[in-house]
Design brief:
It is built from eleven helices and 18 strands. The protein is an alpha/beta fold. The strands form four sheets. Strands 11-10-9-8-14-6-15-18-17 form a nine-stranded mixed β-sheet, sandwiched between helices. Helix 3 packs parallel to helix 4 (119-126).
Length: 374
């Protein structure tokens, strides 16, 4: 009995891990929905798989079952997130699961969204389907951390990514930052853009680096470009306004920014958003609230030590990704990776947890989540 249970448990984990890999394919594409992967199995053999590709299209369970003509009697369904039981853009997934004849559903985690929140599990159980919840739960939470941040904290998930030298510089004393890292590490940065809904930089980054902020990878898609520019100081000739990308560019300023500069930027193709702030600086919390209203769940801060510091000091950074190049720049005037006031005591430093290390070419990638007391 014990050996049989072990074999089944090991198989269950293998199928759920496959569902997790499928779910990750939807990152950056399903907002405001979560990412979900599903695997249909019978007698130890995978019959069909599916994942949520985009809001408005089939959910993962339905995508998998559709491949089988909704005929899966006696099969097991592995799904990373609780199936929905309400009408939205698509019909309830629970009805498709019941109609297909699924005998057992293994759910990675319960959906905290108030429209779901246990209703899908209860509906399946009332239909006589065995439901098991919690397999690889932490991993299922991690793949959906963007969506869960919105559900639990009411704001988008924020990742800060920086490319730095070994002595913590992002540019030389003359502002030269091309290139801190090699091509393979820069490709990782483009992959991060591909999985986030918006990319955020400060006006200084636009003035000095004149970036495109696009995802230059096959099959990728560009995030919404967001420039934090309290006084609308960037040029209407900035490259990101003329990149040809279908992704919009949003320039965010204070309410007192000059109207003439707004008109020039709008004429160049930007959308200007005025938000509250102090002394010409936009409130990070107000910006995240505005992005959430647009259905954007994940924000990548990529440029500017002052911009990153503003969000860190406000407690609004969730994850940090630092790519460290084996280079030394030196010099008092070289640009540090993080600006702001800084902390007075080491005990006040922002602490990271769940640290991972990865070498890409000559560079080391260090990532971790910001530790929260709760």
């Amino acid at each position: 009995m014990g050996a049989a249970n072990l074999r089944r448990g090991t198989s269950d984990e293998a199928f759920m891990r496959r569902a997790l890999r499928l779910a990750a394919r939807g990152l950056g594409r399903t907002s405001p929905n979560p990412v979900v992967g599903a695997v249909v199995v019978k007698d130890g053999r995978v019959l069909a798989t599916g994942y949520h590709r985009r809001a408005g299209l089939d959910h993962a369970e339905v995508a998998a079952l559709r491949r089988l003509g909704f005929q899966a009697r006696g099969a097991d369904l592995y799904v990373t997130l609780e199936p929905c039981n309400h009408h939205g853009r698509t019909p309830p997934c629970t009805e498709a699961v019941i109609r297909a004849g699924i005998r057992r559903v293994v759910v990675g985690m319960r959906d905290p969204c108030r429209l779901v929140d246990g209703r899908g599990i209860r509906r399946l159980r009332r239909a006589g389907i065995a439901v098991e919840v919690g397999l690889l739960g932490p991993q299922c939470r991690r793949v959906n951390e963007h969506f869960l941040c919105v559900q639990e904290q009411g704001r988008p998930f924020v990742t800060w990514k920086a490319a730095v030298t070994l002595d913590g510089r992002i540019a030389t004393r003359r502002g030269d930052s091309r290139w801190v890292t090699g091509a393979r590490a820069r490709a990782l940065g483009h992959a991060l853009r591909d999985t986030h809904d918006a990319i955020l930089v400060g006006a200084g980054t636009v003035r000095v680096d004149d970036p495109l902020l696009t995802t230059r990878r096959r099959g990728g898609r560009d995030p919404v470009r967001v420039v934090l520019d309290g006084r609308l100081a960037i040029s209407p000739r900035a490259r990101l306004l003329h990149s040809g990308s279908p992704a919009p560019t949003l320039v965010v300023c204070g309410r007192g920014a000059p109207a003439a500069r707004e008109r020039a930027l709008v004429a160049a193709g930007a959308e200007v958003l005025r938000l509250p702030g102090r002394r010409g600086r936009v409130s990070p919390a107000a910006l995240l609230a505005a992005l959430l209203e647009r259905g954007l769940l994940a924000v990548l801060i990529e440029g500017g030590g002052e911009t990153a510091a503003a969000f860190l000091e406000a407690g609004l950074v969730d994850k940090v990704v630092v790519i460290v190049a084996p280079k030394l720049v030196g010099g008092v005037g070289a640009v540090p990776m993080l600006g702001g006031r800084g902390v007075a005591r080491m005990a006040e430093a922002v602490q990271l947890c769940d640290i991972t290390y990865r070498q890409i070419g000559a560079e080391m990638v260090i990532s971790g989540h910001v530790h929260r007391d709760h």
